[in-house]
Specification:
213 residues, mainly alpha, Arc Repressor Mutant, subunit A, Tetracycline Repressor, domain 2, 2 domains, 11 helices
């Protein structure tokens, strides 16, 4: 390849990884993950259609970069705290990153199993140190992951719908309509995490009673 051809392939401006991630997030928030393409990213960055490929090979690599930035800052609480307190703090930190990177929650959760395994590993190590046996670690992690994943599916769907045209004070659905309207996402989150952690503590006590830890 000649020097002139090589120069033609290179973008005229140098972009940083932060600029690329920020542009990808803007596209995702506007058009969803399905709307993110390399061509769309190029338009958002203000570069030629092929220039984006100089920085990232494809959409999957781009999503890996986004996930890496989001999940890299998650730290594991110190071992001086009780395991269930540490677990709650870790879940809160994961959730905080998911809320910060709105629109890519499912992408980030998916990559906890692949390119960003340090978060998955940290939680599994915490559960093992607590005393869960191998099967317990796997199931406990799956429970936490499913809650976080499902939480964002529910959040996207919105709160439970109650037909405002039907009013029957003897019907519990109608009676609870004002309560549904008064609750917020944080209320559901706190209740859900408290329930998950309490359930895992109960499972560990059960395991110990049965002589498996």
């Amino acid at each position: 390849m000649s020097s002139s051809e090589l120069a033609e392939r290179r973008p005229r401006s140098t972009l940083t990884e932060e600029q690329i991630v920020d542009a990808a997030l803007r596209v995702i928030r506007a058009d969803g993950v399905d709307g993110l393409t390399m061509r769309r990213l190029s338009r958002e960055l203000g570069v030629s259609a092929m220039a984006a490929y100089y920085y990232v090979a494809n959409k999957q690599e781009l999503l890996d970069i986004v996930a890496a930035r989001a999940l890299a800052d998650i730290t594991v609480p110190g071992a001086e705290l009780s395991w269930h307190v540490r677990l709650r703090m870790l879940i809160d930190r994961i959730d905080a990153e998911l809320r910060h990177y709105r629109g890519v929650e499912e992408v980030l959760l998916e990559r906890m199993h692949s390119t960003q395994r340090h978060v998955m590993r940290a939680m599994m190590e915490l559960l093992a140190e607590a005393g869960f046996d191998d099967a317990g670690v796997v199931m406990a992690y799956a429970t936490v992951h499913t809650y976080l994943f499902g939480r964002y599916r529910v959040t996207l769907a919105g709160p439970p719908h109650v037909d405002s045209h039907v009013e029957d004070e003897d019907d519990i659905v109608d009676r609870l309509r004002p309560t549904v309207a008064s609750l917020h996402g944080r209320d559901y989150y706190e209740f859900g995490v408290d329930t998950v952690v309490a359930g895992l503590r109960a499972q560990l006590r059960k395991q110990r009673r049965n002589g498996h830890g």
